[in-house]
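REQUEST FORM: STRUCTURE PREDICTION
Request ID: SP-0412
Submitted by: Lab K.M.
Chain count: 1
Length (residues): 315
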Amino acid sequence: MARRFETEPVGPYSLASSVRFLEGFAPAAYEGGDTDRLRLAFVADGRPGEERVAGVGVRQEDGVVIGEVFGEADVGVVERQVARILSLDVDGRGFPEVAGRDPVVGKLQRRYPGLRPVCFHSPYEAAAWAIIGHRVRIVQAARIKARMAEELGSKVAVDGRPEHAFPGPSCLAGLESFPGLSGTKVERLRHLALAAGEGKIEAHLLRSLPVQEALSRLQELPGIGPFSAELILLRGAGEPDRLPTQEPRLARAVARAYGLEETPGVEELREISEKWRPYRTWVALHLRAALEEETGEIGGKPASSKREGPLAKGQ
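STATUS: Completed
RESULT:
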C-alpha cells in the first residue's frame, strides 16, 4: 500500500530539472522515461544497524512535491531523506538574489530554471561511489554500482516497477569479493560499511560540524582523500554552501562562463564565489552543467556515450 507526503519547496524548484539531471548522473544510472515523475529506491535513514528499504514515486503539482512511499520505512524519515536528496531541505528563497549580485549566475539560473543539486541517497552511498570509481572510467564504475544494487541490494516495487536499492552497510560489511572490484576496494568498502553502521558518516552529523572538521573526519576512511571527502560532504550530505576547490573542472567552467583569459587559481575562485553565498555549491553545479553541455566533455575527455553526455555528473 502506498503512503504519501507533501513538501512545499521554499524558493524556486523544478522536479523536471532534477529528473533531467539524474538522467545524466552516471552513479544513479537513472532512466525514468519521463520528466514529470521520479522513482527512487534506497536504504532509509535510521538508527545505526537499522536498514529499511524505501521506494518513492515523486511528482510535482502546482509547485508542491508529492511523494508516494512504498516499503516499510517510516514516511517521515523518507520525506526528510527525499528533501535532502533533492536539496529541498535548503531555503532557496535567496538564490534569485545571487543573480542580482552576479549577472553570470543570472544567466545560469535562466538556462536551468529551478535546478538544485540532486544528491546521493546518503553520504554512505556517495563514499561507496568514490571507492568504486577510483581510477576507473565513470561508465565502468556506474555499471559496477548498478550490478551491486541488482545482485546485492533489496528490491522494492515503485508504481508497479521493480527498483533496486544500493546494498546497505550490513551487506557490504561482509563483502568478500565482487566482479570488477579489486581486493583493496572490497576491503575499503568493508571499512566504510563498519563506519556507516556505527553512525559515523550520517548526513545530519556531517552538516552539523564545521566544514573542515567534517572533511577531516571523512578522510579518516581508507581510500577517501580530499577530492572524495568533498564529494561526500557536498553530494552525499548535501552541504549547500561550499566552494568545491577539489573539483578540477570548476576552474575551467568559471573561466568559460566569466570570459577569463586564464584559468583562475583557488584564491581567485574564492574571490569570485563570494557573491554566490550562501549557495556556492548550487552555483558550482550550474557552472559545471554549462561546461559539460557546451563542450560535451567529462573530466576533460570527449563524451563517448549517453551516460557521459551533457549534465553527466560522475563525481
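NOTES: The mean pLDDT is 91.
Reviewed by: T.R.
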